[in-house]
Amino acid sequence: MKIKVSGLSNGTYNYDFNFGIKNLELEEPFFGDYYTNVVLNKFDDQIIIESSTSVDANFICDRCSKEFVRTVESNYKMVYLLRDISSKSEEVDVTYLPHDADKIDISQDVRDYLILSIPMKKLCKEDCKGLCYKCGKDLNEGKCDCPGQEIDERWKPLLELKNKINKN
Protein backbone atom coordinates (compact mmCIF):
# COMPACT_ATOMS: atom_id res chain seq x y z
CA MET A 1 0.00 0.00 0.00
CA LYS A 2 1.85 2.99 -1.26
CA ILE A 3 0.62 6.53 -0.79
CA LYS A 4 1.96 9.18 -3.13
CA VAL A 5 3.00 12.20 -1.06
CA SER A 6 4.98 14.26 -3.56
CA GLY A 7 3.00 17.23 -4.75
CA LEU A 8 0.54 17.12 -1.86
CA SER A 9 -0.24 20.50 -0.39
CA ASN A 10 -0.73 20.93 3.35
CA GLY A 11 -4.03 19.48 4.53
CA THR A 12 -5.93 16.29 5.33
CA TYR A 13 -6.39 13.42 2.89
CA ASN A 14 -8.37 10.17 3.21
CA TYR A 15 -7.44 6.89 1.55
CA ASP A 16 -9.23 3.55 1.55
CA PHE A 17 -7.56 0.26 0.68
CA ASN A 18 -9.27 -3.08 0.21
CA PHE A 19 -7.13 -6.05 -0.86
CA GLY A 20 -6.69 -9.75 -0.17
CA ILE A 21 -4.51 -10.79 2.75
CA LYS A 22 -1.89 -12.17 0.34
CA ASN A 23 -1.12 -8.54 -0.56
CA LEU A 24 0.23 -8.09 3.01
CA GLU A 25 1.82 -11.56 3.05
CA LEU A 26 -0.55 -12.62 5.83
CA GLU A 27 -1.55 -16.22 6.37
CA GLU A 28 -3.61 -18.14 8.91
CA PRO A 29 -5.48 -17.25 11.05
CA PHE A 30 -6.41 -14.36 8.72
CA PHE A 31 -8.59 -14.90 5.67
CA GLY A 32 -10.45 -12.94 3.00
CA ASP A 33 -9.92 -9.26 2.33
CA TYR A 34 -8.70 -6.59 4.67
CA TYR A 35 -9.97 -3.03 4.77
CA THR A 36 -7.71 -0.12 5.71
CA ASN A 37 -8.69 3.50 6.16
CA VAL A 38 -5.86 6.03 6.26
CA VAL A 39 -6.12 9.68 7.29
CA LEU A 40 -3.03 11.57 6.18
CA ASN A 41 -2.28 15.03 7.57
CA LYS A 42 0.41 16.87 5.58
CA PHE A 43 2.35 19.75 7.09
CA ASP A 44 5.44 21.60 5.88
CA ASP A 45 7.99 19.32 7.52
CA GLN A 46 5.97 16.31 8.64
CA ILE A 47 3.26 13.86 7.65
CA ILE A 48 1.02 12.21 10.24
CA ILE A 49 -0.75 9.01 9.25
CA GLU A 50 -3.57 7.49 11.29
CA SER A 51 -4.53 4.04 10.07
CA SER A 52 -7.31 1.65 11.05
CA THR A 53 -7.49 -1.84 9.59
CA SER A 54 -9.92 -4.72 9.98
CA VAL A 55 -9.76 -8.31 8.76
CA ASP A 56 -11.51 -11.57 9.65
CA ALA A 57 -9.61 -14.38 11.36
CA ASN A 58 -10.28 -17.98 12.39
CA PHE A 59 -9.46 -18.84 15.98
CA ILE A 60 -9.88 -21.79 18.34
CA CYS A 61 -11.32 -20.90 21.74
CA ASP A 62 -8.80 -21.35 24.54
CA ARG A 63 -11.52 -22.60 26.92
CA CYS A 64 -13.88 -24.81 24.90
CA SER A 65 -11.74 -25.61 21.81
CA LYS A 66 -14.46 -24.58 19.33
CA GLU A 67 -13.57 -22.75 16.14
CA PHE A 68 -14.92 -19.23 15.74
CA VAL A 69 -14.49 -16.23 13.46
CA ARG A 70 -13.64 -12.80 14.85
CA THR A 71 -12.82 -9.52 13.19
CA VAL A 72 -9.37 -8.31 14.19
CA GLU A 73 -8.94 -4.55 14.23
CA SER A 74 -5.76 -2.54 14.53
CA ASN A 75 -5.18 1.18 14.80
CA TYR A 76 -1.93 3.05 14.79
CA LYS A 77 -0.50 6.49 14.30
CA MET A 78 2.84 7.18 12.61
CA VAL A 79 4.71 10.45 12.22
CA TYR A 80 6.97 10.92 9.20
CA LEU A 81 9.46 13.75 9.54
CA LEU A 82 10.82 15.26 6.34
CA ARG A 83 14.38 15.85 7.54
CA ASP A 84 17.93 14.84 7.01
CA ILE A 85 18.21 11.12 7.69
CA SER A 86 21.39 11.62 9.75
CA SER A 87 19.32 13.15 12.60
CA LYS A 88 17.73 9.81 13.60
CA SER A 89 16.45 9.12 17.09
CA GLU A 90 15.13 5.99 18.78
CA GLU A 91 11.45 6.98 18.83
CA VAL A 92 9.10 4.13 17.98
CA ASP A 93 6.35 5.91 16.04
CA VAL A 94 8.56 8.34 14.14
CA THR A 95 10.09 7.69 10.73
CA TYR A 96 12.45 10.01 8.88
CA LEU A 97 12.02 10.66 5.17
CA PRO A 98 14.16 12.70 2.81
CA HIS A 99 12.54 15.95 1.61
CA ASP A 100 12.27 14.56 -1.92
CA ALA A 101 10.41 11.36 -0.90
CA ASP A 102 7.53 10.74 -3.31
CA LYS A 103 5.78 7.70 -1.74
CA ILE A 104 5.19 6.17 1.67
CA ASP A 105 4.74 2.41 1.84
CA ILE A 106 2.61 1.51 4.88
CA SER A 107 2.20 -2.20 4.05
CA GLN A 108 4.72 -3.44 6.61
CA ASP A 109 3.26 -1.27 9.39
CA VAL A 110 -0.29 -2.41 8.65
CA ARG A 111 0.86 -6.04 8.63
CA ASP A 112 2.82 -5.72 11.88
CA TYR A 113 0.01 -3.98 13.74
CA LEU A 114 -2.52 -6.59 12.57
CA ILE A 115 -0.33 -9.40 13.88
CA LEU A 116 0.09 -7.55 17.18
CA SER A 117 -3.71 -7.20 17.41
CA ILE A 118 -4.30 -10.94 17.67
CA PRO A 119 -5.66 -11.41 21.20
CA MET A 120 -3.50 -13.24 23.72
CA LYS A 121 -6.53 -15.11 25.07
CA LYS A 122 -8.85 -16.18 22.30
CA LEU A 123 -12.39 -16.67 23.59
CA CYS A 124 -15.45 -17.53 21.49
CA LYS A 125 -17.45 -15.33 23.88
CA GLU A 126 -16.55 -13.41 27.02
CA ASP A 127 -18.48 -15.74 29.34
CA CYS A 128 -17.31 -19.03 27.81
CA LYS A 129 -17.44 -21.70 30.53
CA GLY A 130 -14.97 -24.06 28.88
CA LEU A 131 -14.79 -27.82 29.26
CA CYS A 132 -15.25 -30.00 32.33
CA TYR A 133 -11.79 -30.97 33.51
CA LYS A 134 -12.99 -34.47 34.38
CA CYS A 135 -15.24 -35.61 31.51
CA GLY A 136 -14.53 -32.99 28.82
CA LYS A 137 -18.16 -31.93 28.32
CA ASP A 138 -18.71 -28.43 26.95
CA LEU A 139 -20.12 -26.53 29.93
CA ASN A 140 -21.66 -23.91 27.60
CA GLU A 141 -24.18 -26.57 26.55
CA GLY A 142 -25.14 -27.50 30.11
CA LYS A 143 -23.81 -29.03 33.29
CA CYS A 144 -21.99 -32.31 33.19
CA ASP A 145 -22.96 -35.44 35.17
CA CYS A 146 -19.68 -35.62 37.09
CA PRO A 147 -20.07 -36.07 40.84
CA GLY A 148 -19.57 -32.92 42.84
CA GLN A 149 -16.11 -32.14 44.04
CA GLU A 150 -15.57 -32.46 47.77
CA ILE A 151 -14.65 -29.21 49.44
CA ASP A 152 -11.60 -29.01 51.65
CA GLU A 153 -12.69 -28.40 55.26
CA ARG A 154 -10.49 -25.31 55.46
CA TRP A 155 -12.54 -23.57 52.72
CA LYS A 156 -16.01 -24.26 54.14
CA PRO A 157 -16.22 -20.98 56.14
CA LEU A 158 -15.53 -19.02 52.96
CA LEU A 159 -18.17 -21.00 51.06
CA GLU A 160 -20.71 -20.25 53.81
CA LEU A 161 -19.82 -16.55 53.61
CA LYS A 162 -20.24 -16.62 49.84
CA ASN A 163 -23.66 -18.27 50.14
CA LYS A 164 -24.71 -15.71 52.75
CA ILE A 165 -23.70 -12.84 50.45
CA ASN A 166 -25.49 -14.37 47.45
CA LYS A 167 -28.73 -14.66 49.45
CA ASN A 168 -28.75 -10.91 50.13
Keywords:
five-stranded mixed sheet, 2 helices, 168 residues, 38% strand, 7 strands, mainly beta, single chain
Description:
- The chain is mainly β and 168 residues long.
- The protein folds into 2 domains: 2-116, no CATH class; 129-168, no CATH class.
- It has 2 helices and 7 strands, in the order βββββββαα.
- The mean pLDDT is 87.
Secondary-structure blueprint of this entry?
Blueprint lengths: L1 E3 L6 E10 L9 E13 L3 E15 L6 E16 L11 E4 L5 E3 L1 H10 L39 H12 L1
Parallel strand pairs: 5-6
Antiparallel strand pairs: 1-7, 2-3, 3-4, 4-5
Total number of beta strands: 7
Parts with pLDDT < 50 across at least 5 consecutive residues: none
Give the total of domains.
2
The radius of gyration is 25 Å
Q: Distance between termini?
A: 59 Å
Count helical runs.
2
Task: Describe, in short, the structure shown.
The protein is mainly beta and 168 residues long. The chain contains two helices and seven strands.
